[in-house]
Design goal:
Length: 380
């Protein structure tokens, strides 16, 4: 198969599922108001989705691995589209929460197949670049999906935000059906032992590092819209523009990390962590100043977006190429568990200390990430 075409089509699907998962970030304040729940309870629309992924990820990947990969990918996006359509019909918070959880079962399946395909078909020294192409779908969702979802609420209503996500999923589904070549099912006669892989200390160190990094990222980012409205005093349109700026900057950040992560993983990860700590400190100091926040949000997006790529490459580098799909399912579970924990901790921090203080929850986990990275370097 032609690698570039395959990667870009798979990234289109990632754009669809990422818009569904993270599109609620910009509209949490509106949903909390409409359904008369607190902002931390509204945060469960993000964290409950992630819990399902975390708990059922490896099981769903193993269950569906014997089937045609292309058909599995297409069906996964169909479930996402139906879920978003049902979300737009929700009349109470419980129903919305339940239908938001349905596509989460297929989220890790899509991610694992997409990432494994990228690694399996890329030259050995180009695997990070191939993975960064898949993650570009997440970045573009940040650029377009999340800001558009936020803007639609301001222009029309919250239902239009979910309908947008449904249309994005349908477009992604059509792209996969027409453009994606056949991808063979996973060979069940693998050349590795899952038990042996799970006994690798390096794998668990990298999983712990990934968990702390992603938890740190989403403790604050998960409540970005609330922070910009409450602390920076921005209106709905201005928040949409800031989310768009965040995502545009993230496109470049993703490319930079993809370029350097293969050759200099430790240095790239170290600089990422230090830079993200500094950005959160700037958010705390200048959060109430409109103009400085425009610059800070751009820098934040440039740095933040590389976190998933750094985490994935670190975890995937722990095992042999044949085990990529299995390990990617573990990474997807780890990442979504971290999103859950980040959303819960961020919500807890806001309720008890105020929204401006939420940045310290991220700084705490970024500090832990630095310690784990240095321990890994010492042991390695």
């Amino acid at each position: 198969m032609r690698l570039d075409k395959t990667l870009f089509v798979l990234a289109l699907g990632v754009f669809g599922i990422a818009t569904t998962e993270f599109g609620v970030i910009g509209i949490l304040p509106e949903l909390a108001s409409v359904f008369k729940v607190s902002i931390d309870k509204a945060g469960w629309l993000l964290s409950a989705f992630a819990i399902i992924v975390a708990v059922f990820g490896p099981f769903m990947v193993s269950l569906l691995s014997p089937y045609d990969r292309k058909k599995v990918l297409v069906f996964s996006l169909l479930v996402f589209a139906v879920s978003n359509a049902l979300s737009a019909l929700a009349t109470n918070f419980t129903f919305l929460l339940i239908v938001r959880m349905l596509p989460a079962f297929f989220h890790p399946v899509y991610w694992s197949i997409a990432l494994a395909t990228a690694v399996e078909n890329a030259p050995p020294n180009q695997s990070s670049k191939a993975v960064s192409t898949i993650f570009s779908g997440l970045t573009i969702a940040t650029v377009l999906g999340v800001p558009l979802a936020t803007l639609l609420v301001d222009l029309w209503n919250w239902q239009s935000s979910f309908l947008l996500s449904a249309m994005v999923n349908i477009a992604s589904l059509a792209g996969l059906m027409w453009l994606l070549p056949t991808i063979n099912a996973t060979n069940t006669k693998t050349g590795y032992s899952k038990k042996e892989i799970l006994r690798k200390p390096l794998l668990w160190i990298n999983i712990l590092l990934a968990f702390c990094i992603i938890t740190a990222m989403y403790s604050t980012y998960g409540y970005m819209a609330d922070f910009l409205k409450s602390v920076s005093k921005m209106n709905g349109k201005e928040v949409s523009i800031m989310l768009f700026l965040f995502g545009i900057a993230g496109v470049f950040g993703n490319r930079i990390v993809g370029k350097y992560m293969s050759g200099k993983p430790f240095q790239t990860t170290f600089l990422f962590l230090v830079a993200l700590i500094l950005v959160h400190l700037l958010l705390f100091v200048f959060g109430s100043y409109f103009v400085p926040m425009i610059v800070i949000v751009g820098i934040w997006g440039l740095i933040h977006t590389g976190g998933f790529l750094i985490s994935n490459v670190s975890v995937a580098s722990s095992v042999v190429p044949e085990a990529q799909e299995f390990v990617n399912s573990i990474f997807t579970s780890c990442g979504n568990l971290a999103v859950t924990v980040g959303a819960i901790i961020g919500g807890f921090w806001i309720v008890h200390f105020g929204v401006q203080q939420v940045v310290w929850s991220s700084v705490l986990f970024l500090g832990l990430s630095l310690i784990i990275l240095l321990v890994k370097k010492r042991l390695g």
